[in-house]
Design brief:
Layout (H helix, E strand, L loop, with lengths): L4 H36 L3 H13 L2 E2 H8 L3 H13 L3 E4 L9 E4 L3 H25 L3 H19 L56
Antiparallel strand pairs: 1-3, 2-3
Length: 210
């Protein structure tokens, strides 16, 4: 059955938007994250670990392994390095002494560095906001679109295979792929500045996902 003009336009629009996200925005965000990791002297996995601790902490080392797709021993070594550098602290919840929890802690160098990087990017974003009049309803729409794209690409188990066929189950225990890591992008001490959680802009869980 031949596609209608509306369907063809929908397909073309989807392909163009996907290309912009993956081929244009993706590398730009990756550059930012690589620069953050380089300036902090961290690996990509260590930076992701701090992201997870910020978004979900305090969090068990086992859950960190699920988010990052790492073994328990690899997570333990990484957490020890981050703790020695002053980024996190390990805690033993009362009654669950065998379950180590990891919490992001204040870190003056990290917070100051990220504050500077954020301010540099804020000026550029402010220009975009002013040029396109992104305020009020338009701002709310853009914010929700960004959150939906974020959830689609990073907030659910990866829809593509991450292990070759026959390689067994994924590190998170599911078949066919691991859970895609979180990426918060803002690792400043959560108590500094009172920044609102953008997840508060998400629609209620009961809202249908189209």
């Amino acid at each position: 059955m031949e596609q209608s003009a509306v369907d063809r336009q929908r397909e073309d629009d989807t392909d163009e938007l996907l290309t912009l996200l993956l081929d244009d925005l993706g590398p730009s965000l990756q550059w930012y994250r690589d620069e953050v990791a380089r300036r902090l002297g961290l690996t990509a996995s260590e930076l992701l670990c701090l992201d997870v601790c910020r978004c979900r902490g305090p969090i068990s080392s086992g859950r960190i392994g699920e988010y990052l797709g790492l073994t328990r021993s690899a997570v333990a070594k990484m957490v020890r390095r981050l703790e020695a550098a002053g980024h996190v602290v390990r805690e033993l919840p009362q009654g669950r002494e065998q379950d180590v929890h990891v919490r992001l802690r204040p870190h003056a160098t990290r917070d100051a560095l990220l504050e500077g990087l954020r301010e540099e990017m804020r000026r550029s974003v402010q220009e975009i906001v002013d040029d396109h009049g992104i305020r009020g309803r338009r701002h709310a729409l853009v914010a929700r679109l960004v959150i939906r794209f974020s959830d689609t690409f990073f907030g659910t188990p990866a829809p593509w295979p991450t292990r070759p066929p026959g390689a067994g189950s994924s590190p998170s225990g599911g078949a066919g792929g691991r859970r895609t890591p979180l990426r918060g992008g803002d690792l400043r001490t959560p108590t500094v500045g009172g920044y609102p959680d953008p997840r508060s802009l998400r629609p209620p869980a009961s809202a249908p996902r189209r």
